[in-house]
Amino acid sequence: MLGSLLTQWTIRLALACFAAYLAGNLLGLARCASIDQTAEPRAKFTANRNRAFRWLRWIWTAGCLLFIAHVVCAFQFTHHWSHTHAWEHTAAETKRMLGVAFGDGIYFSYIFLLLWVADVACLWLAIRRPGWVVAAVYLFLFFIAFNGAIVFESGPTRPVGIVVVTAMLPLLVLFVWKQWRDLATSQKFQRTTTGKEPLPSGNAECEA
Hints:
Keywords: Membrane, Transmembrane, Transmembrane helix. This protein is mainly alpha-helical. It has one domain (about 1-195). Helix content is about 80%, strand content about 0%. The chain starts with a helix and ends in a 14-residue tail after the last helix.
């Protein structure tokens, strides 16, 4: 009983942190796009953004730690540290919900965990990445979180997840569009100034 509660609530709290972090960043992006371009509002916005970022980074880290705790609880109390059991459980769940057994879906959960940990490390170490990489990572994380919170979840978590996803989806689209627009703009500028095709960028801000 305790193991089941721990497994359920660690993932619910992790997803709450996930939603809060993405919503905070995406709302900041939307506000940034709408503010005046004069120096004073931009400087004030940047200062406020930096303060908010520090809080959001802790929320993102807490969510990651909660998800790690969820994985540990799931393997301890449900799968008994057996990858085979986890694979079979995933196959049974996909069969029940989608009509198709897909045990390899467990690997998407593993990738989700690794990407979340890597992104947290990126934030704390201030590693710079291309914007399209950030966008691709968050799209993948959002897709997996969507499936976990809505498709394969039941009870009160599902309607709450639907409301959160509906509210966040336009902001996520704006975020992805901005990353690809910035990439296209930088490539066009490099072609114009150098007459050469742009090299792959590796120094974009870690904007999450």
